[in-house]
Specification:
The structure is a single chain. The chain is an alpha/beta fold and 468 residues long. It has two domains: 330 residues, TIM Barrel; 92 residues, no CATH class. The protein has 15 helices and 19 strands. The strands form six sheets. An eight-stranded parallel beta sheet has the order 4-15-14-13-12-11-10-5. Strands 16-17-18 form a three-stranded antiparallel beta sheet. A two-stranded antiparallel sheet has the order 1-19. The radius of gyration is 23 Å and the shape is globular. About 20% of the residues have low confidence. Bound molecules: nicotinamide-adenine-dinucleotide (NAD). The site of nicotinamide-adenine-dinucleotide (NAD) has 21 residues, from α7.
Amino acid sequence: MAQDTRLVEALSFDDVVLVPALSPVEPWQVDITSKASRNVAVNVPLLSAPMDTVSEWRLAVVLALLGGIGVIHRNMSVEEQRRHVEKVKNHPIVELADIAVYEGEECCRVRETMRTLGVRQLPVVDAAETVKGYVEFAELETCSCGTPVAKLTKPGPVFELGEERKAIDFVKRGKLDAAAVTLKSRFLGAVTVHEALAVYSPALDEEGRLRVAAAISPFDIRRAQALDGFVDILVSDVAHFHNVNVISAAKKLVKSISTDFVAGNLGTREGVLDTLSKIEKVDGLRMGIAGGSICTTSGVAGIAAPTLFAVMQARSALEELGVKLDSIPIIADGGIRGPGDAVKALAAGASAVMTGYMLAGTDEAAAPLIRIGSKLYKPYRGMASRGALERRYAADRYSRVAKRVEEGIEGLVEYRGPIRRVILEFVEGLKAGLGYAGASSIPELWRTARFARITSRIGAYTGVVKTN
Ligand SMILES: NC(=O)c1ccc[n+]([C@@H]2O[C@H](COP(=O)([O-])OP(=O)(O)OC[C@H]3O[C@@H](n4cnc5c(N)ncnc54)[C@H](O)[C@@H]3O)[C@@H](O)[C@H]2O)c1
């Protein structure tokens, strides 16, 4: 057969922009709820990459409290990975010790403050200002002053702003010794209540526990079975899923699990078509090869499927099969530097994005904080870097050595503070992006987004020295 020498165009995030459109919504009204896999809803369309400098239980807890989902890496034994998942699943949403019942004047004061602020819900925080969840302020009884007594009940999902609800949620740790306004400024910092309400919305399973996913190799049935039914999603974690051996291993593996299975990484339409035609149960597609900031695959092997291109490829495969985009969600994985790239990935057809880089510098990331001179950093490395591979082979005696070449670097990223700051910026960026594109939700963005190719970099701060 003659070699096919046609060039296809593999677009990357910097090659395109989304063009603005008539907008029926204000950014704060934009709904960014989505799916991380067929049966797993998220309030923030973000998954942490299963990397050993990023995703362990601590990050997964806070990310789920903020509405996204963490994917626990697999550079550890099966037992250890299960323990990480357990820690997330058993983590309290509301710490019972922090719960108080407010009565009388105190109750009236809370209600009045919240009414003044136009707020129905505030997050519960601990001493480190980590979001613990929500408390419900339900109109169950009436206190002496005639207003309802606040009772803290099971945490619920975030209510739509402007929606009339009987229940009023509010946030507080310990006794209400300060007005909600004070709490707002202490906890929320410079952001508005509207913004904060949009962010703090835990991703919970049917039993009200935090959601969490775990990375597996399709060859590792033992690991998959140990996590099956316990974790929300099993995420395939190999560089080239479109390999006959990987596909046949996955075909076998899915027969023994009931948890959502995300296939990946894939880069092409053909890869998706082969995956879906050969594997009975595929609940999501992890798309993108060699797009990551720490990935050296394109240099080492000359291969890449840039994330934006890979998402577009998956979308065309699904459309060809007549499969709805939200029934097999596409996860854009690799090279997402911030919300702008994420908006482009979503517009191309993704339901959610996966990132290591954006989260690697946060307090909650799995690597230790390092000081060099006056600056703080956190280590960050690719999962095919020498260090990560050595750890895998040492920690997991069932791991296979498929290649003897490194495809990732080990480096440092600047310290970024608590993850909630990153997520807040991410959520607000997404909402702004959808607002510009004239879409009030992600499915609407799929239908209406228009891309334009750009001929040169659209740069912010060009020629300006940034001081903040
Ligand atoms: N997303 C990316 O772009 C990317 C690229 C490289 C590595 N990685 C990550 O690095 C880690 C190691 O990756 P890995 O796939 O080498 O893991 P691995 O060593 O567990 O390999 C798993 C299987 O994937 C197949 N495979 C992998 N590379 C292949 C290739 N070049 N040609 C043919 N088949 C291939 C083989 O069947 C192999 O046994 C994983 O965590 C992976 O996700 C990611």
